[in-house]
Design goal:
With 160 residues, the chain is an all-alpha fold. The chain folds into two domains: 91 residues, 434 Repressor (Amino-terminal Domain); 59 residues, no CATH class. Helices cover 52% and strands 0% of the residues. The chain has eight helices and no strands. α2 packs across α3. The longest helix is centred in the N-terminal third of the chain and has 15 residues. The protein binds zinc ion (ZN). The site of zinc ion has 8 residues, from α8. Zinc ion binds next to α8.
Length: 160
């Protein structure tokens, strides 16, 4: 069934990807179209690979589906749907309207809670500093290097 994937037209691949991501978020085509500010018929044609969206529309679609635009072109199954119980996490983040930074903080808590090492490779997935307004990568304890050292100095002062 996955054979022929690479032979599909790029628009068909994009359309299928959009549909799977949309379904992963439990969005109807109507809800998706409203989020994107496009017509339902355009959304439908897009998912069938019969319309070529503009770059601006792609950006909007990425935001609506809560993924980077690059994810729209990634091959293979959507990770969201590979484990059905994980969809609850996505649903939670969607309903809570979590920002990228709030999501990163939440993931950092998850790392600490389950003792999972944050992913080092794949810049997009790397954890970000938990300090509001700071977007540097995490060094330790959910903080970037400057904030980690500031926090450490503060703790040493408290102890001493
Ligand atoms: Zn920081």
């Amino acid at each position: 069934m996955s054979e022929g994937w690479r032979d599909e037209s790029p628009l068909l691949t994009l359309g299928g990807r959009v549909r799977r991501l949309r379904e992963g978020l439990r969005l109807t085509q109507e809800e998706f179209a409203r989020r994107c500010g496009i017509s339902v018929s355009f959304a439908s044609l897009l998912e069938r690979g019969e319309r070529s969206p503009s770059y601006d529309t792609l950006l909007t679609i990425g935001r609506a589906l809560e993924v980077p635009v690059s994810e729209l072109f990634r091959e293979g199954p959507a990770p969201e749907t590979s484990e059905p119980s994980h969809a609850r996490l996505i649903e939670f983040a969607r309903r809570a309207h979590l920002s990228r930074q709030q999501l990163d903080r939440w993931i950092a808590v998850g790392h600490a809670m389950f003792g999972i090492e944050p992913a080092r490779e794949g810049g997009d997935l790397a954890a970000r500093c938990a300090v509001e307004g700071c977007d540097r990568p995490v060094l330790a304890r959910g903080l970037c290097a400057p904030h980690y050292h500031r926090d450490r100095r503060a703790r040493l002062q408290q102890d001493g």
